[in-house]
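Anyone else keep sequences and structure tokens together like this?

Example one:
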Amino acid sequence: MPRSNVDAAPFGHYAPRGVCALALRATRRCPTGWLGKRTAFFLRGLALRVLGARPLDVVSLGAPMRLYPQRNVAEKRLAFTPQYFDAPERALLAERLKGEFVFLDVGASVGGYALFAARFGGPRARILAVEPLPEAFERLVYNIGQSACANVKAVGCALLDVDGEISLFVNPGNQGATSVCIVGAEANARQIRVPAKTLLTLAREEGYERIDAIKLDIEGAEELVLEPFFRDAPSTLRPRLIIMEFTLLPMAATLETRLRSLGYREILRTRENVAYTLAEEEA
């Protein structure tokens, strides 16, 4: 049987102690300005050297999580500096997601966005967390279990332009940068085969009649997912809100033109992400 990537000890066994606890309290209080971030990153680095390979059991963005921050930038942010974890994007979601919404977290990693969104949904809200990397998927499932979120479901697959199987390139230094696209030149990058589905296939399997919001962080494969979906899916399934990473997207201008032709309007742009909403939603 394959070895689990999540320690089975009860939650709280890896609560921060000593230097790590002091650093965590300090980093989470650091402001968002340049000096605050420099201070937080310095203290975070010290704590990580003390922590070694051990995980941390913390509450982040309102959810209990077991985090392994050594080889995943997302987990490092969630553990020590959640105030820097896509704050404008999360504020936008908090404003838009109310009641019985449908939210897809594509490239969910260990659940930061999905578990944050769960705080705003009623019992009939549907949150789907999609993560292809098996190691991260196990941690995602564990974290969902700690929050007892009945409205969050995890799916272990990649999203692409075809159904089947795909090679996943695993970034050795940052598992969050793992992708179906080659976005780095690491000679020692590990390749694994994982199941793949189109966004339309996934939506049909889940029985969605609408998608209120979708967040995509899939390292440059956003257009591969969205273009066939817009081509083949009924207009009623088009997400009302799209948040996606754009820094690694090779065809950002083409995709932006496509989105505008479908009635989307840009409403937010940060260093890493861009958000679009359907114009009809603001009418």
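And example two:
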Amino acid sequence: MTSQRRVFPWLAGTAFASGLLLGTVALGADETPSDPHALHHQAMLAPPAVARRLTNYIAPDVALVRSDGARVNFAHELDDGRPVLLDFIYTSCTTICPVMSQTFAEMQKRLGPEAAKVKMMSVSIDPEEDTPARLTEYAERYRAGGQWSFYTGTVQASIVVQRAFDVYRGDKMNHIPVTLLRAAPGAGWVRLDGFVTPDRLMGEFRQLPAQK
């Protein structure tokens, strides 16, 4: 239990932290291979260091559905002129995704009024279950502001986007924590593999080229 608090100190005192720690205790009491999240729980006890690299991705010209029900073009959503923070989640996830979403929530809190100048995007890797209504509930759970949008769509559309950003691993249970940042349309991406703390994410964001 104490190792979890060392790994994710920014989660201490939150409702999610309590649930995560209880889940870890439960796993230790009854470790069975039937738990689809067992490996993720174990990996979170001692996650590897965050790996950073610069890369270029081409956003696919594919239709997704935003949590407000609007059908949108993913590439156009990315290219509205603002810096972009992008991750991939699913609402029934009990391990990786809540940590990543809490980091985004803390990021928007720290940005304050400046958050409106940033585009935060979370794309579901479980579109069959993640309806716009479920994504809306998920967004409310993390008090997502207007700058933070959630997307679903067809399974094929989700896979196309995942592959474009090299996060597709064949099944949602094999997903990995990845956060991507980009300063502006046409710019390269900063890819962060692993559990990024709010401090690290804010630092990476501040290092992006200044916007006009």
